[in-house]
Request: fold
Amino acid sequence: LTDPVGPSPVIIHVDQLLKVAQPWLDFSQRICKDGEAVASLGWVREMWGYAIAAASLGIKHRVLEAFQFEGGSIGNRNRQLSWPVAPTPVTPDGPLAPNGLPMPYYIFHYTYGIEYSTEGLPTELQVGEWSLDKRHYMGSSLPHSLTPPPTCAHDRAFILRSLFNNATESLGRSWSPANGRVGSAELGAFNHFSLRRENEANPARADPVGARILGTGPWDLSGTQGSTHFRIRSLWFLGNGWLSSPRGHGRWSVKEGVLTLDVCGLHLQLV
Reply:
């Protein structure tokens, strides 16, 4: 059996790393040549290559819950960070919060974007109306003074924004992008919630179909969009044009009996 490791990250002795390096590469390449494995494992297949290689050599890992915290706007929402939020503005002369509680995790493992609506609803798997995602800055440098998250957002949104702001403030004038490009500090500038204005202009109750479906659920939707198969479980149609599912929130509207949904990165029309 494999240990639940990535390695993302892992602390390992050099002699063990030298021993596992080649089988890690070999297993990763074998996985990448298997279409079914690629479809099932996606972008974590190299991580599985490591886990399988380590298990094949009898290398065991001690998994520490406190080693790292990982969570977007949905994942691990019930795990409290208890990490003090930095005061505003943050200066390089002092700690984040002199009277704050200690951090119970050693590492903040930042993988997924942290996505919210303006009301503070998590919208993971699609770009939110407040979006803190490293992918927004792949072609530009992180700016100073990122805008704060919605009031009802989870603690990780406030903490990660504070850490970024603390880093850029501490660097001061020395923080100058090599290519001269600085990304937007307005974290509401990246979303494409095209249905918000439609919902506000066309109340669901005014349409017979909207009136019947408003407040209903859970629904399971499945189908094919282009070459992509999708399945969304436990979908609820909420007021003010909001959709809710375990995978994230989205938007819905109805016009002349046609339902339009934006959820989990999909744009769907149901007749």
About this structure: The longest strand covers residues 228-237. Strands lie at 68-69, 107-108, 114-116, 130-132, 219-225, 228-237, 242-245, 248-255, 258-263, 266-270. The CA atoms of residues 145 and 165 lie 6 Å apart.
